[in-house]
Amino acid sequence: MEKYQSDILKAIIYFYKEEKQYNLLLLSNRSLKEQIIANDWIVDTFLTATERSYIYKKGRMVERIGARIAAKFSYLKFNPNADFQLLSIVNDNNDVPFLVDKNTRLNRFLVSLTHTENYSGAMIMKE
């Protein structure tokens, strides 16, 4: 993970739990919003065009951005070389999120996203 990514994560992390089969990460939306304002490149760096389009259509942008960033950082435990621009969190027709890496759906991983006014989070579980 590049240093700027690590610094951003340290600034926004609220809670982190790592286990053998899963990774759980919760972010502070207030801190995330401050980081987005201070570093306008964050959204373009961490999210794909498809993710940005989905978020802009759905609203509650900071919360949805946070949940997807949390999911991507959580996935890094299982694949430390993952490229954020090749990794996407996509929703199926039932609005259930799943991981796509280099245009391939990662069926071995379950994705759970959550977001409230104050916190965003994700859990990635390896089946």
TrEMBL record:
<dbReference type="InterPro" id="IPR037143">
    <property type="entry name" value="4-PPantetheinyl_Trfase_dom_sf"/>
</dbReference>
<protein>
    <recommendedName>
        <fullName>4'-phosphopantetheinyl transferase domain-containing protein</fullName>
    </recommendedName>
</protein>
<dbReference type="GO" id="GO:0008897">
    <property type="term" value="F:holo-[acyl-carrier-protein] synthase activity"/>
</dbReference>
<dbReference type="GO" id="GO:0000287">
    <property type="term" value="F:magnesium ion binding"/>
</dbReference>
